[in-house]
Amino acid sequence: MARNHTTIYAALVANLLIAVIKFISGFATRSSAMLSEAVHSLVDTANQLLLLLGIRNSKRKPDANRPFGYGKELYFWSFIVSILIFGVGGSVSIYQGIVHLRNPPPLEDPTWNYVVLALSFLFDGSSLVIAAREFNKVRGDSSWWMAIRRSKDPASFVVLFEDSAAVIGLLVVAVFVYLGHLFNNPYFDGIASLIVGALLTLVSVLLARESRSLLMGEGISNDTQKQIIQLVNKDPAVQGVQHIFSTYQSPEEVMLMIMVSFKPDLDTEDIYDAIERIRAAVKQAYPLVHYIIIQPEEAAVKK
């Protein structure tokens, strides 16, 4: 998946503006649901900053301490983002909801809340449209969920998840604020906070699952492995591919190790030439493969 910073910057600006507006409204109207939404937007703002930090750090050149580069910095910060969504966004929202249900304040004029919700929906909705449009460009024929599972760029789907949760959360808060004043029942506001907290918790779990998989060393797909094996087997010096290992160092860098058995009549120079041919062929066919280790290995004996 190609990296595009447009979605991150759009979400950053939108969430920062929304957080300020929601905090003002929440304190003015004493709405726990609105304060929960404000915390949610503030956490999302911090998340975008962390993603940008991860992207910047991942582009650092390899050095003596990190000979394969710093690409996995992005995966690390994406995992931190998922923890923040739960630890701050979800937990605070659930806490606010419980406090509100125990001691519900009297209902205030909801007009300002509706104005804030409308503006927030406009900003978050615009950010979601941008994120969805950019992600749609690279997902191909895959379904949205399958494209997210296959994506090796968390910066693309983290914003998509966050904006989707934000829009759904706004709809929940709007409905429950309306119901609270319709039935003159302040408990609806606390229930909305609990729902927003549960929503954020669910999103954090999904993001943590995807980020953890990448951080732990997710490799290329089985189909790509089969294609590389076929490519290597075409070389006249190759007897067969014994094993293939891979891991994504970053969304744009793959480390690949191929254990190859060469024909027994080849000398050292022939094997060296074959290794260079294979390495060049794989890099040409798969530009994301930056590091290729080809290890000669005796063919497995069939029993």
Automatic annotation (TrEMBL):
Superkingdom of origin: Bacteria
GO terms assigned for molecular function: monoatomic cation transmembrane transporter activity
Membrane spanning stretches: 7-28, 34-53, 74-94, 114-136, 157-179, 191-208
Naturally occurring in which organism (per UniProt): Chitinophaga rupis
Localization of this protein: Membrane
Keyword field: Membrane, Transmembrane, Transmembrane helix, Transport
A Gene Ontology term for the protein's cellular component: membrane
Residue span(s) of domain Cation efflux protein transmembrane: 9-216
Membrane topology: Multi-pass membrane protein
Domain Cation efflux protein cytoplasmic per the UniProt entry, residue ranges: 221-298
Protein name as annotated: Cation diffusion facilitator family transporter
Any Gene Ontology biological process: zinc ion transport
InterPro entries (UniProt xref): Cation_efflux, Cation_efflux_CTD, Cation_efflux_CTD_sf, Cation_efflux_TM, Cation_efflux_TMD_sf, SLC30A9
